[in-house]
Each structure stands twice: as structure tokens, then as C-alpha cells.
Amino acid sequence: MSDVSDTIPFRADGRRADQLRPMRFQNHIAPHAAGSTLIEWGNTRVICAVTVDESVPKWMQSQKVVGGWISAEYSMLPYSTLDRKQRDISKLKLDGRSQEIQRLIGRSMRAVLDLEKLGSRTLWIDCDVLQADGGTRTASITGAYVALTLALRKLGYEGKLKENPLLGPVAGVSMGIVNGQALLDLNYVEDKNAQVDMNLVMNGAGEFVELQSAGEESTFTESQLHQLIALGRSGIQELMKHQQVALAGV
């Protein structure tokens, strides 16, 4: 398998193996939220919005835990896929995939926040997928950071925060091995055909927040693992530049 630097254009959408899909943010998409953005990442579109609850979960109250909390909810809207996706409420339970993803979003945001400086409040992060074409969980994490930053700025402007609790950026990206080739930022078709898939979440210091990887149809070597991580690391560095642009002057 070739090194990352040796990748050549060959993907169906014309991207190099180490290239992200086009990305843009539309901030303040949900006017009643404390902070919100629509992240458009290729053909994947997710609204990320943060609302503020001036209380903390009961378990924090009973255990007298100082500070605040962040919780996340994730949902794919019925029209986000080619075939209508049934709402979780109609099944009277949250499906396992949605539960896993919203916990991942919550962990990722808590990893870059000083919860004591947040104060005794809960930030709710809602990520609603409008259109799914692969990478909805990583788009949710990358967009949630932008929405979270906007919400914290608003709390700061209102004098509700003594100090900025944000420790730095966080972003997520997908990688995989498709037809023996390591690829960055898989779309739906690539993800469906991947022999190995991986999701990587990192902070601004280049530290790992979460690494999820599985051999869907085959095993993978240590060398392939390192190559996938290298692809993901470079992708996340670029994603954080997009986040900075989205937040500049806002």
C-alpha cells in the first residue's frame, strides 16, 4: 500500500485519497438556540444547535458534583436518506446507532471543556441530519464544536461566565480501506463498500479523544492502521482551519 504522499486522483468524485469533501458552515441557522450552525460537508448536511438549561442533572446534584454538564441528542430526519427513515419516537425507543453517536458527540464536547468553569448549567447539543451521504457522526462533532463555541460566546456576552471554559477545538473525520486503498472522508458509497472503516476524533493539541475502527469484511495490518491514522490526523488539521474560518469575526 502506498504512502499518503503517493495518493493519486481516482475516486468517483475526483478527490485524491487524502482529500476532504468541500465544506461550509452557515451559522445562526436556529435563531432560538444559544448557538447553531448548518454544516454542509459534501452532500452530508447536519444542523447543530446548543440550548442552555440553568440546572444540572439530578445525579450531579445528589453527588454534589461542582460545575456543569453537556448532553447531546442525534437524529436522522425521515427524509435524510433515499428511503424514508422511521422516527425513533414511532418505535418508542432510540435505536442503538443513534444512542452510540449522541454519546460520542457528548464525550467529544466534554473533552474540550472545563466543566467547572461552565457553572451549574447544562448545555444540550442537538444534531439533526438533514441529508446523509456518509460521515454524519463526524460532521455532527465538527459542527457541534462551532455551535458550542457560539453558545459560550453568547453566555460570555451576557455575563454568565466568569471565565471561558473552552480548552480548544475538537473535530472528527472518517477513514477507511476501500478496494485495498486507504481513503480519507468516506462518502456513503465508499463507506458501504469499505473493507475497514474508522472514525477519529482529536483535539487541537493533536491528542486522541476517540478512535473507532473495525474490519467490516477483512482484517487490517498495523501498517494500514498507522496509514489511516495519518490520513485522519491531516484531515482533522484541515477541519480545524474550516472551524476557525467559520468562527472568525462572529
How would you describe what is shown here?
- By secondary structure, this protein is an alpha+beta fold.
- It has a single domain, classed as GHMP Kinase, N-terminal domain (Ribosomal Protein S5, domain 2), CATH 3.30.230.70.
- The protein is 33% helix and 28% strand.
- The protein is built from 7 helices and 9 strands; from the N terminus they run βββαβαααβαββαββα.
- The chain has helices spanning 58-62, 88-91, 96-110, 115-118, 136-157, 188-193, 222-247; strands at residues 23-27, 35-41, 44-53, 69-76, 122-131, 170-178, 181-184, 196-203, 208-215.
- Strands 1-2-3-5-4 form a 5-stranded mixed β-sheet. Strands 7-6-8-9 form a 4-stranded antiparallel β-sheet, sandwiched between helices.
- A hairpin with a 4-residue loop joins β8 and β9 (208-215).
- α5 (136-157) runs parallel beside α7 (222-247).
- The chain is globular and about 55 Å long.
- The protein starts with 22 loop residues before the first strand and ends with a helix.
